[in-house]
Amino acid sequence: MATMINLTIDGKRVKAPEGMNLVDAAELNGLHIPNLCYLKGTRGIGACRLCLVDIKGMKAPMLGCTTKVKEDMEVDTKSEKVVEIRKFVIDLILSMHPLDCMTCTKAGICSLQQYAYDLGLKESSFTRKKFGFAIDEANPFIKRDPDYCVLCGRCVRVCKNQGTNVLEFMGRGVGSKVVTADDKPLQESGCTFCGSCVDVCPVNALLEADRWRKGREWEYDRVGSVCTLCGNACDIVVSSMDGQLTKIDSGAEEGSVERYTCAYGRFGFDCVGADNRVTSPMKRVGNELKETSWQDALSIVAAELKKAGKDAGFITTAGILNEDALTLKKFASEIVKTKNLDSTASLYGDAATLISGGVDIGPADLIILVDLAPSQWKRVLPAIDAVIRRKVNSGAKLITVNSSETEISSVAAVNLGGNEADALKVLAKAIINKGITGNKKLEAAVADVAVSEEAEKAAAFVAEAKEVVILTSPAMYNASANLSLLKGTAVSVPLESNAKGVILMGVTTSGKTYREMVSEGMGLLYAIGEVPVKQRPKTGFLVVQNSHMTELAKQADLVLPSAAIHESEGTVLDYLGRMKCACMAIEPAGEAVSHRDIFSHIAEAMGVKMKEVKDSEVSKLAKAGVKVVFNPFVRKEGLDVNAGELIEQMNTSVINGSRLLWLKEACVKTV
Amino acid sequence: MSETETKELKVEDIKADVEASFKCPVRKSLNYISGFLSGPMCGKCFPCSMGTYEARVRLQRLVDGNGSEADLATLKRIASEMLEASMCKKGKDTAKFILDWMGTDVFMEHINGRCPEAECPVFMLYDIIPGKCTMCDLCREACKHNAILGEKRKPYQSNYQPFEIRQKRCDKCGECIRRARLSEYSFFILMNFN
Question: Residue A80: CB partners within 8 Å, gap ≥ 6?
Answer without folding.
Answer: none
